[in-house]
């Protein structure tokens, strides 16, 4: 679910950034860029959490 929200933030942010760029609305462009970047960052955090969880599970499985 989080990944879908993150991708949604990326897409919506890109649209806002593009609309802001085309219309000359710097505030909208910056908001879009921030939303897009936030979605990408959250996606990276999810990846790191998933990989860390896999490593912990592998380590626990090895001890059995």
Describe this structure in words.
- The chain is mainly alpha-helical and 64 residues long.
- It has one domain (2-63).
- It contains two helices and no strands.
- It is rod-shaped and about 60 Å long.
- State the total count of DSSP E strands: 0
How many structural units, i.e. domains?
A: 1
- Sketch the major β-sheet: none
In helices, the fraction of residues equals: over 70%
Work out the helix count: 2
Structural class: mainly alpha
N-C termini distance: 32 Å
Topology order in helix (H) and strand (E) letters:
HH
Average pLDDT number? 93
Provide a concise account of the structure shown.
This protein has two helices and no strands. It has 64 residues and is mainly alpha-helical. It has one domain (2-63).
SSE order and pairing:
Blueprint: H1 2-23, H2 26-63
Based on the model shown, name its key terms.
64 residues; mainly alpha; 2 helices; rod-shaped
């Amino acid at each position: 679910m989080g990944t879908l929200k993150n991708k949604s933030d990326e897409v919506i942010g890109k649209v806002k950034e593009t609309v802001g760029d085309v219309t000359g609305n710097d505030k909208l462009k910056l908001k879009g860029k921030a939303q897009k970047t936030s979605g990408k960052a959250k996606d990276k955090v999810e990846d790191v959490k998933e990989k860390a969880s896999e490593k912990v599970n592998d380590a626990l499985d090895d001890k059995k």
